[in-house]
Structures are given as structure tokens and as C-alpha cells.
Amino acid sequence: MSRVRIEAVVNGEPVEFLGGTRQSLLDALRDELQLTGTKEGCGTGDCGACSVIVDGRLVCSCLMLAPEADGRTVETIEGLAKNGVMHPLQQQFLEQAALQCGFCTPGFLVAAKALLDRNPDPTESEVRYWLAGNLCRCTGYDKIVRAVMDAAAQMRAAGGAR
Amino acid sequence: MNDATHAANATGLKVVGQRPIRPDGADKVTGRAVFGADVHLPGMLIGRVKRSPHAHARILRIDTSAARALPGVKAVVTSDDFPRVGSEALEQGEGSATLVDVADNCLARGKVLYAGHAVAAVAAVSSEIAERALDLITVEYEVLPHVIDVEAAMAPDAPLLNERLFTAGVTPRPTTPSNIAQKTVVARGDVAKGFAAAEVVHEGRYVTVPVHQGYIEPHACVAWAGADGQHQIWCSSQGHFAVRAMCAKVLGLELRDIRVYPAEIGGGFGGKTTVYLEPVALALSRQCGRPVRMVMSREEVFLASGPTSGGVVEVRLGAMKDGTIVAAEVTLKFQAGAFPGSPVGAGSMAALACYAIEHAVVTGYDVVCNRPKVAAYRAPGAPIAAFGVESAIDELAVILGMDPIDLRIRNAVKPGMKAVYGASFREIAFVETLQAIQAHPQYRAPLGPNQGRGVAAGFWFNIGGESSAAVHVDEDGGATVITSNPDIGGSRASMAMMAAETLGLPIERVRATIADTTAIGFSALTGGSRVTFATGMAVVQAAQRVVQDLKRRAALTWECEADQVEWRDGAAYCTDASKEVAPLSLRDLASRSARTGGPISAEVSLNAQGAGPGFGVHVCDVEVDPETGRTTVLRYTAAQDVGRAIHPAYVEGQLQGGVAQGIGWALNEEYVYDAKGVLQNPGFLDYRMPVASDLPMIDTILIESAPNPRHPYGAKGVGEVPIVPPLAAVANAVQRATGVRMRALPISPPRLLAALDGEG
Questions:
Q1: In angstroms, rounded to a whole number, what is the distance separating the alpha carbons of residues B327 and B356?
Q2: What whole-number percentage of chain B has pLDDT above 70?
Q3: Is-contact B97 B276, C-beta < 8 A?
Q4: Which residues of B are less than 8 Å from A40 in CB distance?
Q5: d(CA B489, CA B238)
Q6: Which CATH architecture has domain B381-462+612-759?
Q7: Cβ distance A147 to A99 under 8 Å?
Q8: What pTM was estimated for this model as a whole?
Q9: Which tens digit of pLDDT belongs to each residue from B642-655?
Q10: Rounded distance, CA B463 to CA B80, Å?
Q11: Helices (H), B89-203
Q12: For the purposes of burial, counting CB atoms within 10 Å of the CB of B416, is it exposed (0-12), middle (13-18) or buried (19 or more)?
């Protein structure tokens, strides 16, 4: 597989790496940048475990080629906490026991952040439909939905999105 | 809390029953937690498996020479690289299998038994080269007739998977081979007499299809063989001691030669209690001396791992007009997949366990067919049996004109009764659980057009078994709990909480960790809803030993008798009023431990008995769209006899998760095979598990009126019961909404629409 030079901003930091022309962004994040918080559950865009935000848009990184990230801004789970302080979503997931095995959790958190970035006051239905691209087999979604709603409320009370 | 023996009835618990943040939480919300596929070692190779395209075929020849010659390929294995092993039974928790079958499932020998069966594997410097190498391996097959469905496999003229398989459990021993591996019977009383006395007899035939556990993390491991024969494996599993044992036996090694590190596990539900990749990865690594990582694709997960059985459940109930069920006859036919070992035994025992029926017989058949070998799935066998029994009881309630909960209460098992399967029930709260649902507002809430409400009950045994735990006190008075059960749903939290409660410490001062196979004593699998009960018991006993030791050290310091020292709230108090001494906190005692006997720690290994069974009762409201046949779950409440909830939020989570899996099983999940026996939907797009927009909030009621006296804090297993009732609860609700009884799962829109049209 031939490799190309890719320059991108990942979690606020400029990075430069060689990525395969057939390599997914997911594999590049995991294998070239050692950002293994983004998970592969299916490789076909059905489970959302590989969710990342590219130029503000939620994508399945398994469906995007690494070279397509050239010149773009990528946010992964590793960038959600800032300066060692957890995002309200992360805090709410912990307080509400919104994870069991924790494998789908990074994808849910990234997807939920993308939701709250554009809609700081979602209804329960909006949360459920936005997160319908993320599979969780452990929780039945109840506590995840509550955690997202409560994080949104907490962020609104704190004066807007971070 | 120095005397936790009677704590099951204790009040004033400070940590148990609270909802602290789990010890591994931050790692799992920040991406730092290391799962099997996240392990990266220097010089690591990528392993890939070549799989059979045929459902059933004889392997005539495998030629790996071209693959071996490909630059970048470092190792190639087939079953010839495995020693021939015997048919000894293997400990697999709630699954059952023999050694030779586990080995042959990892790499086929002689025959392939399902499309997706592994025939060879390679390790190469990149995944591209590994994939190319797979293409260069040629396998010559003689394709054989195959059989997919359970009753077809039981037919006398069915294609035989194994010419040496004779039905066990029948006398005289059959002389001709069969796909029926075993017949089991659970019985009491005189069924003929019972039915003769019955005023009402109802019978039905109910069918479920195989469903996958559906964990989001595909199987993953890294194996690294040492030049000195000391090997290491990192893997996501439900039990790294079990992985060690299976790898050693499959490869003919000693246990001491393999060290297994538990990676975080991304869901298992029973499906990660066996091995598929680990022995293969280790065999590859032994050929080349480099670490080999193997990760299944989702397609491989569907083709070659899990699922649980599909089954046919025939139920016949005899009752009096007042609702007393006097006789029951149940027949279970379970698919085992390619090798014997369906959960039909457990399903047979669980089938009628909720009810006090005088005359009962449950007959089970374990049947092989050309599908992947089934693996344990959450209360293995019980949901299938309960779908039949709980649907039939619902139909009986309609016939008798009784409230379905009243009918169940009339027949419910109570403390002191003997179960149909033979055990005696002690502290159980099944009746209270039924009453809790009957009293819940959902049970009386008005329903709209095309809406219906269903209820169903469920039972699971729960198990105890062998566990080890250690408690280490730090020099500054903190403590670490070490166990060897992979944490699949928050068990580190409950372990830390029980240790903190026993030591009298705030939870913030206790850490919980999971050790590899060399760092602590043996523990059986994380499965059977056993960890909080059995491993929790080991944790509490280890903490109690630490407390005893701390009291001894305080007595030594005060020059008094140990029985004059009392331990409460994390400190020693002297009860001898003549000694005017200030209490000694754990911190005080830890800081001077060198003067009182050295480091403070204790390790306990035990075999826990008396897990205490669990009962669940669920109520489900649905709405059916008569135009499309789509069923929407509107509202759902699950009540369960949990003994005592150690961390209630994670107990609720077990109920909610089990319900969601059960709803998927009821409404959508199924395997679609083509005429050649090849799976057509090996992916999450077409194997349709519930997503957030498919489900409502799932309300839970934790019944804590019958704490388990054998557990220091009253815990019963909670993880498996919740998947038992939903299949029938949903079907019963659909019947009430539409008038149509769906006796086969899944109740997917096309099937329900066809049934509605048939009725119309």
C-alpha cells in the first residue's frame, strides 16, 4: 500500500504522518497516531464506536480514508477533556453509570458532543434519534440518554457550550 | 462493620447501597482504557484466519506453500500444528464443550462444519500481506449436504455432522449415529395423572431463532511466545484463567508456561467464555517468536462466534378452573451448532422453576447442525424456555379469564418449596416481585388503540464457585482490592465498595484492580452472575482478615487483649475503659506496621456456595402499526428479586441492558441463511439490534426484601435474570394489542404483518 503525507489538526494539535492510500481514518488514528480511544466495532459504519468529529461534522472514522483528513480538523475522544478536566458529558456518564463495558462509550461521547455543539437543548427524542447511529449492547440506552440530557442542562446552566 | 457475617440483615451500611463513581470510570470515558485490540507490542505481527465458504465439507487438502513463500509472511498454521487432544470436558462456566471440540472449532480438522469455520491462519508484517497470504492458501473440499434447522437436523435422514455421535441419555444406547447429541429429562410427579385431573388443558408450540450476544467489541488478543517456552497472552475475555487453561490444553502446554493478562472487555454476555483466536495466535507466535495480534472483523464475529441456540419449545399445561396449574409437559429442542453443547440442560431446569407444579416433565434435546457452535448467552437456555412457558401461561390466563399476574401468583414458588428441577428455595421473593409489578402505575395506565400490555416472569439459578481476592493496605492507610475477574459491567466498583464497607473506609480510599494469572489465585469466569456474589465474598473475607489483623496490632500497641479492641469507622477502639488511649485509625496502624508485624494484607481463595436464585417480572406496553406491522415498545418496567443491591445504579443497568437485549430478541434479531447454508446478514446493518430510538426509558424496581444470607451484604446474582422475561412479555403485549398470538420469533414487521393479514 502506498503511503502519503497527511497534515491535520487532531485535538487542537497539528500532526503530520504517513497514511496509506487505502487506510481508514480509524486505522490511521489508532495505528499511526496511537489514539486507540476510538474503537472499531464493525468497520462498516453501523455501530458508531469509531465516531469522530471532522471539521465540526460527526463521522464514522471507519468510513473515511486517512488521506481525506489532510488539511482538516479532527476531534477524538482523547480531546474531549481539556487540561485534565473532564467534559460535562464525561462527568455525567460517570455519575449516572451510563457505561458498563465502556467499549462503545468513546463513540457515544463524541456523538453526544457533536449533538450538543449544535443543539444545546435537545429533547429526549432528539437525543435518541441523534444517537441511533451508536450501538450499545450493555445499558439499554436509558442511563446514556439521561446523562446526555443532564450534561446539556448542566452546560446551559453554566452559560453555554464549551 | 467488623462482623459482616450478619450484615445481610444489617442496617446502617455506609458504602453498600450508595452510587459512587466506578474506579475504572475515568479511563473508560477518556479513551485511556486498554481493550484487547489496543495492545501494541514491538515487532507485532497481524494474524488473520482463512475460513470455510462451505456449510459442510470434507477437507481433502490444504496447501499453504505459496502463502509461506510470500515475503512478509512469518507463520502459517492449520490444525496439523495443534496436537491431537482428547474429549475431556472443559470448564466453560455456563457453556459446555469438550477439549477436542474447542480445538477443532479454533482450526477445523478433517471437516468444516459451518460456513466461516476456521481452516488456517497466517501471521504477517501487515494486514494487507496477511490478507494476500490467505488468498494464496488453497483448500480442496468435498462439499457435503448440510442442515441448518433444528428439527431438520433431528430427522432420521438428515445429513450427519459427526458419524461418531450417538445420542446420550437414552437406553439402550443407540446403534446408529445421530445429530441429537443428548436427551435430558427433568421430571417429578406423575404427569399422566396430573393431566387426567386437569379441568383445562392448553398446549402450544413456540419457536425462537439463534441470536448473537452482540457485544460491540470483536474478539481480540495478542500472543507472544517466549524463546524459553514462557508465553504471554493479552486478551479481552470473561476469564483469563479459563483462556490460560484452554490454550494450554489445546496446544499441549503446561499452565505455568502461559501468563494471561486481562485487557478490558467490551461486552461478552457469555460469548467470551471460550476461545477462538488465542490458541491460534499463540501457535503462530511460537512459529516465529514475534507477538501476533488477532482481531476478528464484525463479519467473522457473526460467522464464527456465539450465538445462542434457536429452539422449539412445546408446552402443555393442565390447570384447574381456579388457575392452579396441576400438570406441565415441556419439550425443548435446541440447536447446539457445529458441536454438542447447547444450553438445553439449563433451559430444561429453568423452564418451570417459577411455578409450584406437582406433576411436571421437561424433555430436552441437544442437536448439532451446520451453524457456528453456540456459546453461553446471558441465562443460557432460560429465555428460550421462558418464551414458550410464559406465552403458554398468558394464553391460559386468557382461557381462564384471569389476570395474568393473579394466575402467576396462584402458582408461584415460595420460600421452603422445592423447585421442579429439584432444588429447595430458601430466601426468595418471587411473589413480592409479581406484586410489585401489579402495584406499579404502568399496570393500570390506560392504553390507546393498537396498544397492548404484556407481562412475563423469569428465573435464573445464579452460581457461586471459585474466586480469589486480596486486600492490601497502603502505608498511608488507603487500600487496594485485587481480584481476577474481568470487569464487564462495573464490578470493580462493587468490589471496592464491599471492601470499603468492611474496612470502615470511605470509598475514595479504596482502589480496585484486576490481576493477571500469575499475580493472584484462581478465579472462575466472569459469568453466571457470580462475581458480586462469589468474588465479593472473597473480597469481604479478605477485608475481614485485615480487620482482625488490625485489631491484633492495636492490642499489641495498647498491650491489651485483642477482644478488647473494637473496629468501627476505619479505626480501632479500646473497650477497656482503664486504658485511656485514643483510637487508632487505619492510617495510624498502617504507618507503624513495621513495628507490629510488617505489611498489612490478606488474600482469600474460596468456593462460594449458596448463590441464591433470582426472579424477574416484567411489564411491557407496545403499539403495533397495522399498516407496517412494526411494533414499538412504549413503556417497560422490570422488577427483580436482587437480594441487596451493592451499587444500585449498576444493578439497574443490568436490568435495563437485559431488557434491551430481550426486546431485540423478541422483535428483530435473526440469522438469515441462503440455500447453501451461508449466512446472509453478518453485520450490524442487517442483524438489527435495538438502537436508542427503538426503546423507551426502562423503569426498574429492585426488590430487596429477601437478602441472601450466604453473602455478607445480602447480594444475589442480578445480571442474567433480566433477559429471561422480555421475549414473552413482548409477545404477550403484541397479542393484547392485535389479538394475534405470535408463537415464533422474531416478531419483525413482515412476519407480524403477514400474521395480521392472515387473521384479517
A1: 10
A2: 98
A3: no
A4: 37, 218, 295
A5: 11
A6: 2-Layer Sandwich (3.30)
A7: no
A8: 0.97
A9: 999 999 999 999 99
A10: 38
A11: 99-106, 127-136, 150-154, 191-197
A12: exposed
pLDDT digits (tens, 9 = 90+) for B666-679: 999 999 999 999 99
Query: What residue ranges do the domains of chain A occupy?
Result: 3-79, 88-157
How close A111 gets to chain B, by Cα (Å)?
13
Nearest to A142 among B29, B693, B698 (CB): B698
Contact criterion met (CB < 8 Å) for B29 and A132 = no
ipTM rounded to 2 decimals:
0.98
Q: Is B396 helix (H, G, I), strand (E, B) or coil?
A: helix
Cell numbers at B171, concatenated: 437406553
Nearest to B79 by CA among B246, B299, B250: B250
The CATH architecture annotation of domain A88-157 reads Orthogonal Bundle (1.10)
Pairing of strands A3-10, A13-20: antiparallel
Find out if CATH 3.10.20.30 is the number for domain A3-79.
yes
pLDDT at B582 > cutoff 50: yes
User: Across residues A95-108, what is the average pLDDT?
Assistant: 98
Contact between B567 and B550 under an 8 Å Cβ cutoff? The reply is yes
Q: What part of A 83-142 touches B (C-beta under 8 Å)?
A: 86, 90, 93-97, 99-106, 109, 125, 127-129, 131-142
Å from B384 to nearest chain A CA? 19
With a cut of 50, say whether residue B11 has pLDDT above it: yes
- Which part of chain B is CATH 3.30.365.10? 4-33+464-608, 381-462+612-759
pLDDT tens, residue by residue, B88-109: 888 766 677 899 999 999 999 9
Q: Given the C-alpha cell 500532526, which residue does it identify?
A: A15
Q: Which CATH class is domain B4-33+464-608?
A: alpha beta
